Amino acid sequence: MTDYTKLIDAETWAFIERTNSYYPPDTIDYTIAQQREIYDRMCREFFAGYPSGVSAETTAIAVPGRKVPVRIYRLAGKVPDAVVLYFHGGGFILGGLDSHDDVCAELCGRTGYEVVSVDYRLAPEHKHPAAFDDAMVAFEWAIAKYNQPIVLSGDSAGGNIAAAVSHATRGHVRRPVGQLLIYPGLGGDRSQGSYVSHAEAPMLTMRDLEFYKDIRTGGEDRSGDITLSPLADADFANLPPTVVITAECDPLSSDGEAYGERIVAAGGKAFWCEEPGLVHGYLRARHTVTRARESFTRIVDAVAVLGRGEWVW
User: Which residue among 194, 250, 254, 295 is the active-site one?
Assistant: First the structure.
């Protein structure tokens, strides 16, 4: 049994308790509508505002039969050297443009890059591959709209989507120049590693993960589908330079480790950074928890480096 009293510091415990006060651990037992209401309220409580000079424009990409909403963040007076396509977390059932609004604004303000947040369709109303399809629409739109290099990024479920897009676009003339994945779920082996040692971690448990997995597919067995589980791919060659940042106290940690290892084994560039004592969802703690603040700086710096086409790891 993992002793979290030794791994997690007081600042992080305070963040966990504050989160639980808005978003109780049993939230997955509520209806989807209730879960979204609870999640959205929690995100509003943690909203940290925009950095000076950052503005946002909400628009939509029109495709036959539907639109994919996006929010574009820009820093005043700055011609961006790169564009970040960002996919939010939320277990494929929660979140949207508002849930990660301040994170994207800060990413823009601190890198100077234009950031495009993608409001992909959510389960259970839209089962897999709806979210992936919307992400691909956003990527195709971005490479048509921008001449700058494209960096893919996302947290949790969004990290899964970013990785899936990387796998799907590696033969593309304008493939992504890099990907930055934050505590992603990539479809790893749930019988070992962090899935076992951190099955009961604060903020995310194996019970949560089982719920999200089944609801995304409608219970259908899609093992081997790399658009669902990038770790199921047999070929990890020619992927963009990849930085994966995981939280130590998170059942998904092993996915990031395994993903980085497979890219390196295939001759690619990948760096895996495990943040000690942090928990899933710590992006919301970046202004209140020292470890999370330092990690967010690493995230910002990694996005900046990837956007410049450099590799410093």
Answer: 250
Residue 262 included in any domain: yes
Q: What is the number of structural domains in the chain?
A: 1
pLDDT digits (tens, 9 = 90+) for 255-286: 999 999 999 999 999 999 999 999 999 999 99
Active-site entry in 119, 255, 280, 295: 280
Check if 253 is active-site: no
Q: Is residue 313 part of a domain?
A: no
Domain CATH number, residue 84: 3.40.50.1820
In a domain, 312, yes or no: no
pTM over 0.90: yes
Q: Is residue 87 part of a domain?
A: yes
Q: Which of 99, 153, 156, 166 is catalytic?
A: 156
Q: What is the pLDDT of residues 53-76, one digit of tens each?
A: 999 999 999 999 999 999 999 999
Contact 250, 203 (CB under 8 A): yes
Q: What is the domain extent for residue 128?
A: 4-307
Question: In this structure, which amino acid lies at residue 33?
Answer: A
Active site residue 250: yes
Residues of the chain with pLDDT > 70, as a percent, come to: 100
The CA distance from 190 to 291, in Å, is: 27
The Cα 29–Cα 20 span in angstroms is 14
d(CA 163, CA 200): 26
